[in-house]
Amino acid sequence: MKKTLLFVPVFLLYTFCIGQQLILATHGQSDYQIVLPSLPDVQEIQAAKVLQDYLQRISSANLPIVHDMETPQAKEILIGKVNRPELEEVSYEKLGRDGLYIFTQNDKLVITGGSKKGVLYGVYTFLEDYLGCKKYPSDVAFTPIRSTLTIGQIDDLQLPVFSFREVFYHDVYDPEYMDWHKLHSFGGRGNSPSEWGYWVHTFHQLLDPKEYGESNPEYFSYYDGERHPGLIPSWDGTSVQPESQLCLSNPEVLEIVCENLEKAIAKKPEALYWSVSQNDNVNYCQCEHCAALDEKYAAFAPEEKMYSTHGSEYPALGMGSMLHFVNQVADRFPEKIISTLAYQYTRVPPKGIEPRDNVNIMLCSIESTRNEPISTGDPSFSEDLEGWGNLTDNILVWDYTIQFSHLLAPFPNLLTLQPNVQFFRQNRVSALFEQGNIQQGGEFAGLRAYLLSKLIWNPDVDIDQEMQGFLEMYYGRAAKPIKDYIDLLHENNQGHTGRKLSIFGGPLRETDSYLTPGLIEQYNHLFDRAERLVKYDPEKLIRVKSARLPVTYAMLEIQKENEGPNWELAEEDRAMLPTGLSLQLYDFIYHCLRTNVTRLSEWHTPPKEYLEKYPLVSEEEKNE
Ligand SMILES: [Zn+2]
Predict the structure, then answer these.
(1) What stretches of 209-311 adopt beta strand conformation (E)?
(2) Could you tell me the pTM of the whole model?
């Protein structure tokens, strides 16, 4: 991204001045009009209306919207591809789909952009960067009030670093929030049209075990001496899933997959991206022919790259047969981009085979530590990313940013967000999916969604300043103790333990790092102070209490583990909790309910269920 601003030194401003500034409005009046093309597209109309709306909110002036066939006037705001000489030099080819260009020329302000949403992004960028408007969580838009609204000279061209930008967070999918922060959605959330026909884990859709499992077991993975065409219960027990993968060296498998893909494309012809990718398990085919392909294209000996997820360990050797297969599919659909996963057993880039130009590699950082940047904290992933970056620039990184097993636990990874996004950019990653919390609520959900939204457009944004701005606006006078809490939490994020901070970890593992009794006491002092500072501001008090939930949750979890075995059972499955603890639990649940927290884990446990089961230590937790 190139961002250039023409800064006018203050003394010059006073010397030569007024001509350098554009007075857009003063005392509720404006000499300006907003100019649209005579046949504007939807984005241009929306951009003009958003601008008109916010200018009125800021200055009380209502600027008229006119078409460009009207006689040009000296003072105009030109929106989109208007027929005016000021636009003649603009290169729309350079702006692509989402690029934006804001500039002034004499007394005119021009906001234009690429073919997709560039002009709308241009208006929101102008409102934020030049007029001081802010969009924090979707329900908080800050608009300054100005009796005189002036801007200096502007020359600001911004191009996206990542062509696809999704921040997977519940609050993000508000239509204005998405447009404001220039975000996409693979699933078409937030009125954003999706370019994805299939997203991920599609082998079972393209060749269904229910249809072929019995008749053609040879289409499925071979290992442990037999084919595995079956279905097994899904991890949450609510459905079934394939127990294995496809046999990718079988030519009939290729034909069936292509046939079914063609049918799917016919139903959604406008979608560009189609995922042809492994099911969500590591049971890949080790038949003679698949194994030969994997060996032929292996960049490492099997023992050099052993990975593990959820306790199972496997050699990451499966990409050879995968890419050999996916390239053949891509050759059949040259107008589409065929996306495939580099995930778990297929994460390591192969040798001697390259992805076709229309193949997208979706690389997943699920194993990485989160207490330090991936570039230093996970050499193995870094090596894989660099390897893929040498083979292609059509890479989507699927990155993980929260603790999925405990959505409300403190998770000190905020300082890694920026270096990680910068590292992805360095290695030719062209699309980014930042997976946060799709459930409502969660630790610092609004702050995290905001910081990721900023980074995904501009990896070099001043992230400290953005965080500070958010905290001051969102928590008001409580911003300082909350920032102190964030700093203290991150200063103790396991550096001395040498242990990785996992997205599947939890508070019980951290009682020797950032959740020691002494630190928890300090966190509570900070939140006591934060609550006192906003006690007469109910809206901000609720936000502070939400920020505090993770500390309380950690205390509840740790007490359950440490003291639970001593609690007296009043009934078969209900313990008599110490009174103080009961009240803490009730406070916690009440605040979760009043702020619509939907789950405490990615997969399960609504707040009421947590309350019901609190005294019991579940089997899952025992095994953690
Ligand atoms: Zn096979």
Answers:
(1) 222-223, 226-227, 231-233, 240-242, 273-275, 306-309
(2) 0.91
